[in-house]
Design the sequence.
């Protein structure tokens, strides 16, 4: 055993790449090694920029949290979106809203998030700080606490900037929605707002499509929608945020789960001017475009009016619309009735429309 | 809006890279897009290889779990180790044991894990399957259920093979250990077995050091140790698995948290022949080498004998040893008493001994 003054001198020559940046403007490999630099990054940057809450910054290997009041909801998502900063949002708020929304649509109140970074060596510290500020604002807005985390740094070329993972814990609130397999013929399909905005925003930002102004992502928390729906006692079968694969993927999954056929009305789909224009110009189907702040509901007809009334009273749901209905099972899962009344089959999303959208 | 038969034709020419592999032997971008290929990968590969448990494979955006019996433990870790398969383990079991161990050392019984993949396009499907099998075996062994997950695929060059994230939820069992800030002068420091094995295994595998046989990682769950310690009613102040930064990092953190000085005895450190030999040959300090199945305890002197007795009765703890003691605060945090009685200061780990160790 050899005594040593510092960690740097512990390693055989060549096995110890030195940090390439010591002025603090970039993330270095040392920031991920669990020693002094990691501690300083966590203490001076991460915990400093994140909100101080009851259960944050405890140290130790796991957060200690109170016993929840009911059944537990647990979800995880990694975020690999590119570009990291896009019109209408960034990877930080996406990572908070995405996971919070996954809990909310299941009928749970989001409580606690974990936050794990995989950062590429050389990543600008200013971008990391901007992402952390964005995470902080999103967590405060949605009243979730970031209670545990992890930071790994990989060498240049082993990641593309930064990847995040957030896992979320929430508590279910009664009555818990029965779920997609309880969807019945006659149920109505509702979306909370214009569809396809996140997908178009990322596509436009990445492919330099030159739209002016740049189309904005709909990246937003849907927690207010669910608070309003719960307060009003509106009952629904199932809810889902239509992210990757768009509203088409949700409809496909639900139709299969409930052994029904979904019929969507093309003329009823709420579209922003940007999505309508770009879809016509580029031959896109907004049903396949991703959303990051949009909920699809299946609701029994007798609760439809009340659901729409409640949604129309919220900021995010002002343009909520009925987009179709559920029929007894036919040979296909989802059909779309066009403007001239002709029905076409909506296929399950497939292939690679646009990688790294979230 | 344009009608379309498949997702592939939705995109303007050039915006839609086709999967480069359609024979199923590699992971393609389409596997991460939330449509048909993602569903098939999840249904036919991921859920098929993972254990079927009460709460697995529910579908939906979040798992629905029962109300836990007590205070909740919540932790997260990303795993970026290279090589993915190393002597004594692989990234899959590391991702299960690492997160399970983080819960166990805090005094919680691990219950549920999330599992998120970031996979590089072109990653061999056979390697993904091997990793899933390893995850399955590790989850079964530690009696945790994998209840929710996520799969993202990034283009070639945007990751190095595969990265995992597991987050873990557990329930605390009374009495909850008081924690590092309650460590007192006079407390004894115990490790559960030979130190530095994971760090050396990764270093040897990566730098082609040519050791024969190759040094094995100590990658293992520590849950049995804690079950035994709890059953015997042994009280301790704090426990920690000494991963990145090694036992040195744990001692530094604890000494700071308790405003004491830790004194380690060099001759008392349990070392495998491989770690002893490699440390002498290469000038490594085993205190800085990572472990992945090794616990450090701070224990009041009156519980020391019982702790050692219990540990020595377990598979993992047969070589448990007292490595030092806690003194009143001096000017430094950690000292190491050498074989000739001279004391040296143990610095906080710093720099980049070996990136991507876990």
Sequence:
């Amino acid at each position: 055993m050899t005594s040593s003054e510092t960690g740097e001198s512990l390693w055989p020559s060549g096995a110890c790449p030195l940090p390439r940046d010591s002025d603090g403007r970039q993330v270095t490999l040392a920031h991920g090694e669990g020693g002094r630099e990691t501690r300083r990054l966590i203490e001076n940057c991460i915990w400093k920029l994140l909100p101080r809450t009851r259960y944050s910054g405890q140290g130790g290997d796991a957060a200690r949290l109170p016993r929840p009041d009911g059944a537990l909801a647990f979800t995880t998502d990694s975020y690999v979106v590119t570009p990291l900063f896009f019109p209408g949002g960034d990877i930080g708020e996406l990572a908070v809203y995405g996971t919070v929304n996954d809990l909310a649509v299941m009928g749970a109140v989001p409580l606690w998030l974990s936050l794990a970074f995989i950062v590429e060596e050389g990543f600008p510290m200013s971008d990391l700080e901007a992402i952390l500020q964005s995470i902080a604002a999103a967590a405060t807005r949605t009243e979730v606490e970031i209670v545990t985390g992890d930071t790994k740094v990989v060498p240049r070329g082993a990641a593309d900037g930064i990847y995040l993972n957030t896992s979320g814990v929430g508590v279910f609130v009664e009555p818990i929605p029965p779920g997609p397999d309880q969807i019945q013929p006659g149920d109505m399909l509702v979306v909370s707002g214009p569809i396809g905005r996140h997908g178009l925003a990322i596509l436009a930002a990445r492919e330099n499509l030159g739209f002016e102004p740049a189309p904005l992502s709909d990246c937003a928390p849907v927690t207010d929608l669910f608070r309003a729906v719960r307060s009003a006692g509106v009952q629904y079968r199932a809810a889902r945020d239509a992210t990757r694969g768009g509203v088409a993927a949700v409809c496909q999954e639900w139709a299969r789960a409930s052994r029904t056929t979904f019929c969507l009305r093309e003329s009823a789909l709420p579209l922003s001017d940007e999505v309508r224009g770009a879809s016509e110009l580029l031959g896109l189907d907004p049903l396949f475009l991703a959303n990051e702040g949009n909920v699809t509901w299946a609701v029994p007809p007798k609760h439809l009016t009340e659901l729409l009334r409640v949604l129309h009273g919220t900021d995010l749901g002002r343009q909520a619309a009925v987009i179709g209905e559920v029929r007894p099972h036919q040979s296909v899962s989802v059909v779309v009735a066009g403007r001239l009344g002709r029905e076409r089959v909506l296929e399950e999303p497939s292939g690679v429309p646009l990688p790294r959208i979230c």
About this structure: Chain B has two domains: 29-172, 180-345. Helices of chain B lie at 36-49, 91-105, 125-142, 197-207, 223-231, 246-258, 273-282, 301-312. Residues 29-172 of chain B form a domain with the 60s Ribosomal Protein L30; Chain: A; fold (CATH 3.30.1330.10). The longest strand of chain B covers residues 108-120.
